[in-house]
Amino acid sequence: MASVKVPIVDYLVLEPEPHLRAHECAACKARYFDRRNACANCSGTEFADADVPTTGVLSTYTIVSFAPPGVDAPFVAAIVDCHGTSVRGKLLNMAPTPGDVALGMPLRLAVYSLGADSDGVEAIGYGFEPANRKDISGE
Amino acid sequence: MSDDVWVLGIHMTRFGKHPDKDVVDLASESVLGALADAGMSMADIDVIGAGNLMGASGGIGQQVQKQVGQTGIPVYNVVNACATGATALRVAYLEIKAGESDTGLAFGVEKLAGAGLLGGGQGTAGGGKWAPRGRFGAVTGLEGHTGTSNMPGVFAQIGLDYAHRYGGADFELFARIAEKNHAHSTLNPLAAHQKPMSAEQIMADVMVAYPNTRPMCSANVDGAAAAVLVSGERLKRLSPEQRRRAVKITASVLTTDPWQESCQVLPDVSTLTKAAAKKAYAMAGVDPGDLDLVELHDCFATAELVHYDNLMLCPEGGAVDFFNSGAPWRDGTTPVNVSGGLESKGHPIAATGIANVFEVATQLRGEAGPRQIEGARVGLTHVIGLGQACGIHILERSAA
Q: What is the structure's pLDDT at B126?
């Protein structure tokens, strides 16, 4: 744990426990993961950080057969409803086969390593794994 | 009150591989074809709406003028993803509606054969430093890390989201939608693919993004389509034969997607389509039940299902029952994509939003040959450009 870690995206917060953090519009509570100029719903310009629950259910998915170099394929791309906040991610720690993925299945956030760069900085990605798994990865 | 707008002439090239033709060749062929069909020349045209997505900075309108007639008229080169053709058509329509023009030309063209997987972007960067960049502060390409942005995958999720909400849709059902469109295009000599495929063959083909196999994806092909539009006043001064073949545009609508909670992470192709459809039906004064045929944006089999619902061809949540009833087959109550659609006729992106008008206009004229839907009077065309834009046109046969 001595190495320096960097999240794959700035909306992934690694400490103290990995979770996602959205920009929430102060006026209408719409949530966003990208850098904002204003709110797409109400044009408000004030935002606050909002921690997104680390559990949710599978809204939809696809199993993608082709991936860019350096990414394992097939992979399961998914949209997860985290108690009202929709999140995109991939499913981790399960087989990428239709029989193993079920719409509505309970999921929880999990992280994985993308490896270290030439300075020894390790990039950490996130995804979702079945919530009933006992053998949690990442520890 | 502004004048009516009519399709006077329309043409599309054969869709498929055209290795010996460039975009200007294909566009010129469609433009000259539409002018001949209209009984007009470039000297009659007051305005051009032109679309070519992949060569968006190239000024396709002026390039084509330089081949078919430089008359000094205004050209609007437009880009709106897969709604580019519909947008070009609407530009010509709006010029006539505004009284600025009597006669307009619209065309769309694309060279897409062999283009492969569209969308998705970059994967993991090799060799460099993990340095945050862009609006997500991403240290690498995100495709395959935070889900997918490739088109078959995005639309697969849209289809399975519908399945999650309403049930009844599975791999086989989506394959049977593609089977229908591949069956329809066996009657279309301009379609890229004209061989039937069974649902079993479709399911056994190359999986691209579950549940979309390759024949359930729009075909990346070359092609162009063009239309000549005229005002009602101008049409009155034309020949009886021109008036008889003219097809009235009773609705032209363009929408974008209003904010929805989940649209930040998965494109919502439904809300803007529903809004466009509602507006179009009101403009045209028709109900979905009045439609004799529909050409909708089946960029993937998973998309066609949700658009049955979005275009209100069935009750909300009833798309699976609608398909299973046989309604969208060419002998059904609401034939959908009798041209073969994007999956089988092909999807040269900027041409699509005019090629679907070609199909409906040809059917309304009673000139569709072996694929004619008997007695067709009213038809609807629909496109979705991700990002997003939705274009809908409703067309009606001439009363003359």
A: 53
* B235 assigned to some structural domain: yes
Same domain as A61, residue A41: no
Verify that A48 and A59 share a domain, yes or no.
no
Q: Kindly state whether A128 is in contact with chain B, defined as any CB-CB distance less than 8 angstroms.
A: no
| Tally of domains within chain A | 2
Range of the domain at B370: 5-114+219-397
Q: Could you tell me if residue A133 is inside a domain?
A: no
In the DSSP assignment, the letter for residue B333 is S
DSSP B99: T
B123 in contact with chain A, both atoms CB, cutoff 8 A: yes
B165 Cα to chain A: minimum distance (Å): 9
The answer to whether position A30 is within a domain reads: yes
Whole-number pLDDT of residue B119:
75
Predicted pLDDT at A1: 46
Full domain range(s) for residue A20: 1-52+115-126
Give the number of domains in chain B.
Answer: 1
Distance CA B100, CA B77 (A): 18
Q: Which two structure tokens, joined as six digits, stand for A63?
A: 């199993």
What is the reported pTM? 0.95
- Does B171 reach chain A within 8 Å, measured CB to CB? yes
Distance CA B85, CA B56 (A): 13
B180-230, pLDDT tens digit by residue? 999 999 999 999 999 999 999 999 999 999 999 999 999 999 999 999 999
Q: Which of A52, A48, A28, A50 is nearest to A40 (CA)?
A: A28
- Chain B residues in contact with A98 by the CB 8 A cut-off are 171, 210-211
Q: Is residue B343 part of a domain?
A: yes
Give the ipTM.
0.93
pLDDT at A137: 46
